[in-house]
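Mods, move this if it's the wrong board.
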Amino acid sequence: MATKTEKEKMLSGELYFAFVPELVAARRRAFHACNRYNNAGEVSRRRLVELWRDITQDARPLPPRAASEEDDERLFEDEPWIEAPLWSDYGFNLHIGSNTFIGNRSTFLDVCPVTIGSNTLVGPSVNFYGGTHPLDGKLRNGIKGPELGKPISVGEDCWIGGNSTILPGVTIGNGGVVGAGSVVTRVRFRGPHWPVLS
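Not the wrong board. Structure tokens:
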């Protein structure tokens, strides 16, 4: 059986070492892609979608350019709307549904998949922390020690208030609401449809 790479361990939620060349290069790529997005200035919707897809490494081709700028904008009306600035560790682990809004100053520690469903609204300064560290200080050992992660999943039609933090392994079901300033560590359900988040 072949030994897993640190990236493979990371993606499967196992302990892994983040400061190996492959992962350092991947974070550097994401950092520069986020910088390009954050510093794009006044550009077309087409260009923003192109820059977003660069962050997430989404290789799908853009549709052919429409005859007018207005018609061209309509081609992207179902794409997620991501306000700058934003930060992501890797980008390739971000999966954002259609017709979703992400407010500015959002941070994604996407060591494992961070999935946000369609029609979801995310306020400003929301943190999605998919990465975590061992609790034993000797094992943790700064940047020479291992870390790990768990996926984060936000369903469709959710609303996450500004300045909230979603921790590793959290699942927020369809229609969930997170009040502004919350730290979401787990999800409990009350009734058949509406989760109470804490």
